[in-house]
Amino acid sequence: MLEGWVWVIAAIAVLLAGISKGGFGSGVAFASSAILAIVIEPAIALALMLPLLMLIDVASLKPYWGKWHAPSVKVLILGGIPGTALGAALFTVVSADFIRVLIGAVALGFPIFQLARARGWLSPKPRAFNARSGFLAGIAAGFTSFISHAGGPPMAVFMLSQEGIGKTSYQASTVIVFWIINMMKFVVYALIGIFSWQILGTATLLAPFALLGTYIGVRAHHLIPERLFFGLTYVMLVLTGLKLIWDGLV
User: Fold this and answer.
1) CA 70 to CA 164: how far, in whole Å?
2) Cα separation, 171 vs 156, whole angstroms
């Protein structure tokens, strides 16, 4: 399915996803899908990455088991169900170019979101848990996760605006929520015919890069400056987003 330099790009993209989810949170793991969408059909890129992201989820799950914020996890998953359905409904009726523009827009929007948080432009005051807000965040997370594997920002806005959410409970909640949402996506992807034996076979061949990336991420967590890692990734996301939007529109 993948040949030559396209295979090299795919391996690097999967390695990046593993490093991100294994050692630096899952925020920029979706960059792998955006990178792949430049060189192969967007639907194929999403289908190829999903089982690999699920593998990374499993590899990252054990250290955080049971440490999540249960009320938030519950409403986010409940919201993720209609969000995933909405993403599937849109996915089946739009063109590949429209999906390129959507993925490109998310790729551009994520660094802007992170910049706004870093500069204090987006700094919601801590508040008590609100089930309705969590459900809406789950819908947004399920939808953006389905169309671009990028459900992190809606969940981050909800979780980080709550009182008493620490680093570990936030990370653990992220891991378990997207593990479950990704399983739902896998079923829907299969039902609407996105997967093929060729795609799954290619994902199997790329699996070692996913596990290697996860291992590197865990080991490098305290060695590589987080600011450097994210800075380089955000530059790559901006360039990737601009390229996808240009290809989709032109």
Assistant:
1) 13
2) 10
